Amino acid sequence: MKPESIVGTSAQRVDVKDKVTGQAQYAADIQLPGMLYGKVVRCWEHAHARVVRLDLSAAAKSPGVVKVLGPADVTANKYNSSVLDLMVSEPMHDLLGDIDDQAIFTTHVKYQGDAICGIIAKSEEAAERAAAKVIVEYEPLPVYLTAEASRQPGAVQFVPEKPGNRAFQLPEPMFPDHALGGGDVDAAMREADVVVEDVFYVPKQKQCQMEPHAYVAKFDNAGRLTCWTSSQMPKLVQAKLAKLFDLPMARVKINATVIGGGFGARLGLISEPQACAMALAVPGHPVKLQTLREEDWAISPSRHPGRYWMKLGFKKDGTPVACDARFENYKGGYYLDASGTAFTAGAWLSGMYKFPALRYRGESYFTNQGLTGAFRGYGNPQTNFALEQLIERACAQLGIDPVEWRKKWHKGVGDDGWCAGVTYPSCALDECLDRGAAAIDWAEKRRRYANQTGTLRRGVGVAVMNHTSGAMPMLLEHTACTVKLNEDATAEVIFACSDMGQGSHTALKQIAAETLGFPFDDVQLASPGSDAGFDIGAHASRTLYVGGAAVKAACEDAKRQLFARAADRLQVPADQLDIRDKKIFAKADPQRSIDVEAITRGGVYHFVDPMTGETTGAPGQIQGYVSFFPPHNSPPFGASFAEVEVDTETGEVRVLDVVNTHDIGRAINPAAVEGQLEGGIQQGLGFVLTEETYYDDRGRMLNNSFTDYKMFGPSDMPKITTILVEDADPVGPFGAKSVGESGLVSPIGAVANAIYHALGIQFTEAPITPEKVLKGIREKGVAQVAH
Predict the structure, then answer these.
(1) Would residue 45 show up in a list of annotated catalytic residues for this protein?
(2) Which residue in 388, 692, 726, 741 is the catalytic one?
(3) Taking residues 390-417, what's their average pLDDT?
């Protein structure tokens, strides 16, 4: 096999010039003739209340107002802004208990920022002035911020379909006793020599994407509803909107705009229903709906917080015998994604280590916190924070090196992955651990920091992770792709795969060029939103793995047709041909060749000689096509090592060094892979040390802005070493596996374990803020000999 010349190189990103010159068009940049402006009036006073009076009369008379919309002025259909219900069969949908419980405008406020009504005006200023004139009277209801509060007897029920305000638990027919796993956990735990157990709190983290949500919607004179949106999932948004507004899909068009960061914040619907409802109310006029940063914070589903109990059992020699866990997550006021993270947190748990007996229960409870849904990692950060700290505690009690224990007991090729019965086809975690340990000087620093005195204490920690490349077989994975060869021997690749800024379109273009044997610049991408063939959308780290495999298959189809025509012209079997520099030639006799353009141009301009009636070559434009369903999910693995310095007087934790090693399979674009891992580290450090959305006792957000929400900035970031471990996966395109979410996960456990090494104290509540560190030191003291 000849070496690849395009795949494996850091080709320049296809979107970089437009972005750095300000020419990339985001949804908020769109200007159309006759534009009107929308404003959603939201409830900011309460997190739980009933609307007892809504008076829009003054707002309707406000200058510049075109129309006002209350709950009775829009469709009465309910919806679920998540798209998980479209990724499972109807029987599975019913088994999971998914429900449509959201209204475009509500009379039962379930979180601060719930939508009450809408204003359509001739300018943004006019809409804002009118919104201030809306009169709403509320009946306040009890506020529930935790599962413990919301499930109490007598609590107000969020929906009648979910008694006790339990939105979801693992369904009995699929998970006996509502538990994921297998083996006799109780019996195995009784045989354990060492048992470690604790309850962890994991925080509500915000994606903090740079682009606030914005939309333009228009209901045109032909009766077609068009929505310009930066959704990660344009095809599923099309289906959702068609159902919500009782329109056939052919009359709903989604124009996918440039995405200014996603991380799960645009997975499904956000305010597309409100924007489209406004457009339907003023046919022929486009309506632009934008959100302020504080508003975006309220309405974007973010990470699931909650309580995570875990108990692990081991024999004296370190052999793992049992794992028992329960994650109760705090939903917001609506059902969306209730079944998702409650399952995946346990899936990542079961896929990591060789516990012969494992039992995991996952439940979601309605609360009056802001919406929770998809966020990079999707249950894996929560599991990593709990699992990796307990593994570290057990290693300390057993006197075993944490790196060596992980190398011995992590799952690998042939073991069940995160989905029972689907085994790992590849695993390079041992190499990740070895190279990461060497890069951070693990053995020396563990020895050096074993006996410390003074105010500043240092420690090093390690953690590992597994993730996925697409969500099959639990969820539908499907991407359609068309490859069109133009008459001048250039190619256009047409699909609906989204690029959220991570560089996936560049990698897909590299796969196309490599497969066709065309120069990189002679391949162009067309991603026209819902007008392209089907694609599930950007989630579950699947775009490169599934979308890339679809692009590769469609290109192979086009190349097969091209070689078949060349074989006929050259009188050489197609399997004995090769391509280089746009020339197809016989492998045994390279001089026997034909230009690709001679075939592609002849197929399009297939003239008939008027004097002889003869033609030359095969007629027809060559187009490759595939409707692709992946046969696997090829999970990636990774290991992170962190070095921290803890100030025992202030409680400040300073991360000095992070080494992130990733089992990528094959890096299609190494620079993009490294960028994904480094960005993930930034979010992982925020999860473990600084980030959480806080609420007062009335359910009102206290830090819904960049002013008050502490992210890691450039000056906070440590030295980062990224190591790509390439061990080609037998299933992924060119051996590739995913990277989109993985970089965030294991830095969480690594930093928590480094703090434990520095202080001899474990912290079970994230983020580990200076206040919590000082409290832990006061209560437990600082160990003279760190673990």
Answers:
(1) no
(2) 741
(3) 98
